User: Which sequence fits this backbone?
């Protein structure tokens, strides 16, 4: 869908948001004035006012692109969001529901009657309904299913049969199929008769009688070759296609690598099942990278900026509780050395440094390995050389950072033995950090697990415990008489 | 460019990589056998062997897509990468250089003579040369500039005039412009005469005599409207366009929001300067999200999996040294309380818990705010409600996590006073963490800085120092007689 030139600027959106909030506050004020006013015809006045408010909001939002409405809804606090959504949910045929984030969609849907929801969502395409399916209550879903024709229902069921990380779950059905025994003139006439091409159509799919994909006909070729030529002579037979059960991550990489706009999705027999489109891939990549960042920061799932405090709290407690556990566990090591600390209390000030630096350095290693694994660049053929390189690097890092830390503690405490212990502990803990930062992702990957999940928790737990143990252990060997 | 259906699978790439490595090792073996053999005609035999090796590598790689070759090169250790690149750098007209990551490109270019490089890169389009420009030595760049015609040179200079974060730096020139006083039949005839459309062409740009963009003509409309209609009647006048000096991040969001394939780029007077294309946007989003992850982990810039140990070390030291600084600074606080620790050594075991949990919780808050700021969802209109929500959440978190920690220490030490101090310290430090995790990104954003950079370092430094200070301070008030 195309939109006015100014629509895409961030300022425009902020300006719209400001206007909406001003409007809402004005309406709130009007409402409270009526409530405080004389009680005659009270209900009538309030109903009229409510209608007026709804109309004003509808007028304001009717001109906006669904994606922009979604963005404004996401930026509104819960109560204002609900007021706006009540007024405008029939606009744009449910497209707004598609554009909002998962967390915000739940807040919108939770306030709707099953009938309303079925009316709104029923206007969407099968692949779009599939995107919403997880958030739609069962009763509304049944209503929607009943309103679909048999082809749409088949499409919807086809998508719902696949898991979120499979290509089938991301496909749509906006494809034009043609046979290879027609000439280009006939194809152009066919398109003209259709009157409309699905969005993002950059190629037509050439299929045989069994619906198996034989080739693709880019619009480019359709437009540049003589109309008398036959599809079979002009089509491209060397093209990228995807299997329904293939991993979405792999498909996304292929879109980036081969600069695709659309590509056919086929089943095991090569039969055309649907189409993958770059706009779904773009959304997928964005969601995935957002998710990675949030996982790193320990926020469970995507959080709505204004989801209820209670919901946000529960979303963050999982990670915090795990951290309470690992923090208590690793500091138990310190308990073992309490008499050492009593003899040299400076150790208490210095030990967190050794622990923290181990975590930082291990994180650097593990993040690079996790990314290289995701890019498919780590293979049995080169993993030994990679390990060798990272170990060499750890020795170099350990020497350098160890010496810097030794020097700094020398400046602070003028105690050579203490400084030597600091340097040695730092050196050993950085080696431990690299072995762990390398080992956890590689092992998880080897056994088919996602190498990113949990790596940083386990890593920090180990580098903390080992940092305390190595430092206090060395201190008890060399510093305490 | 289209490629064979199997090309995009990860297994296929891993298999190719394995084959290349086997081939290289075999060649290495042959070479060493010749060197150890009888010395007659030694040089002749070695030259012949070298030629043979080169040919074999060229045959192997000629069939692969440039993006796949790039991926294999990135997975090879430095010496093997150099051997392969020596043999194949003339293949695919420099496209491989475009596809490899920045770090790997530098290793490839550093081994090439200026003449070679100019020959290879000279075959690329102006916008592609611009992508490489930062990595090409001055002498080779001058050679390349001399080999371009005046239009290409103008294009190249146009792109180089913009900064990396501006739309102008990402544009290309693969656009077809038309006038609005022609009919569609004439346009179709024009395209047929051109014989080829630039890749990703989904629309033609309609310009006036001064090159100002008046509208766009999607190929879809060209194909579905009667050939006798005029461009002026069929074109879309409500379309997304970008300014050359606009932020790339904003443009990427617009591509996602409005599902664009291509869009015109104009200057301040509305004159067409170039085109933005979804494949560049896809690469941009991927690079940006990779960068964000690496910044979070404290890896300076993108690192080649097999860049030299020395280079990797320098890349990681910056962050580690900053951390040494903040770690020393925050543990100085502990030094102030050494006599307290001597009186109750258990405090040494417990204080890292308070510090670490503050950092974790603050990170959760700051990451959500940073992401919402990037999405443009935090505005002056809603920031107060957002702050109120996060503070309420912090109180809730503080009570819950504080009580959990108090309980755990009660179980460990059976000391009520100590447990109460733990709970209070945890509660206060979580409040500090949220204020800081909220404050730093918001303030940085307010003053036009990137809210993501450095937030986690400053945050951890503050939550560590404050954690130690609050806990040991409360202990000295309530636990020490």
Assistant:
């Amino acid at each position: 869908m195309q939109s006015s030139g100014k629509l895409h600027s961030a300022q425009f959106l902020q300006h719209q948001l400001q206007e909406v909030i001003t409007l809402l506050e004005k309406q709130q004020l009007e409402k409270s004035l009526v409530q405080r006013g004389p009680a005659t015809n009270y209900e009538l006045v309030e109903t009229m006012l409510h209608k007026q408010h709804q109309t004003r909001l509808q007028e304001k939002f009717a001109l906006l692109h669904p994606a922009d409405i979604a963005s404004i809804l996401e930026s509104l606090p819960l109560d204002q969001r609900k007021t706006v959504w009540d007024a405008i949910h029939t606009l744009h045929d449910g497209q707004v529901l598609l554009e909002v984030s998962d967390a915000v969609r739940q807040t919108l849907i939770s306030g709707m009657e099953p009938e309303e929801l079925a009316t709104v969502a029923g206007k969407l395409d099968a692949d779009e309904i599939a995107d919403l399916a997880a958030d739609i209550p069962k009763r509304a879903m049944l209503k929607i299913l009943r309103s679909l024709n048999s082809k749409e229902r088949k499409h919807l069921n086809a998508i719902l049969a696949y898991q979120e990380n499979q290509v089938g779950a991301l496909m749509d059905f906006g494809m034009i199929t043609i046979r290879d025994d027609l000439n280009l003139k006939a194809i152009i006439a066919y398109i003209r008769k259709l009157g409309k091409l699905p969005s993002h159509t950059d190629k037509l799919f050439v299929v045989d009688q069994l619906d198996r994909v034989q080739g693709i006909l880019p619009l480019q070729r359709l437009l540049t070759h003589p109309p008398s030529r036959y599809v079979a002579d002009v089509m491209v037979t060397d093209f990228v296609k995807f299997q329904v059960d293939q991993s979405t991550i792999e498909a996304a990489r292929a879109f980036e690598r081969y600069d695709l706009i659309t590509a056919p999705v086929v089943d095991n027999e090569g039969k055309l099942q649907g189409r993958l489109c770059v706009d779904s891939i773009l959304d997928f990549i964005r969601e995935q990278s957002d998710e990675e960042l949030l996982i790193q920061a320990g926020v469970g799932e995507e959080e709505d900026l204004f989801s209820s405090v209670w919901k946000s709290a529960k979303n963050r407690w999982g990670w915090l509780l795990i951290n309470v556990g690992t923090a208590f566990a690793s500091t138990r090591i310190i308990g073992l050395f309490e008499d050492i600390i009593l003899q040299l209390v400076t150790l208490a000030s210095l030990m967190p440094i050794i622990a923290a630096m181990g975590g930082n350095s291990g994180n650097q290693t593990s993040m690079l390995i996790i990314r290289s694994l995701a890019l498919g660049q780590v293979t049995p053929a080169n993993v030994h050389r990679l390990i060798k390189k990272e170990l060499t690097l750890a020795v170099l890092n350990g020497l350098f950072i160890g010496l810097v830390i030794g020097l700094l503690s020398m400046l602070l405490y003028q105690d050579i033995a203490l400084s030597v212990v600091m340097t040695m502990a730092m050196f050993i803990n950085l080696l431990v950090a690299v072995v762990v930062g390398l080992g956890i992702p590689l092992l998880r990957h080897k056994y088919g697990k996602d190498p990113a999940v949990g790596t940083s928790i386990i890593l920090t737990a180990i580098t903390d415990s080992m940092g305390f143990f190595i430092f206090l252990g060395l201190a008890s060997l060399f510093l305490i008489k």
Observations:
- Chain B touches chain A through 140 residues (CB under 8 Å).
- The longest helix of chain B spans residues 383-413.
- Residues 405 and 423 of chain B are 6 Å apart (CA to CA).
- Residues 1-5 of chain B have pLDDT under 50 and may be disordered.
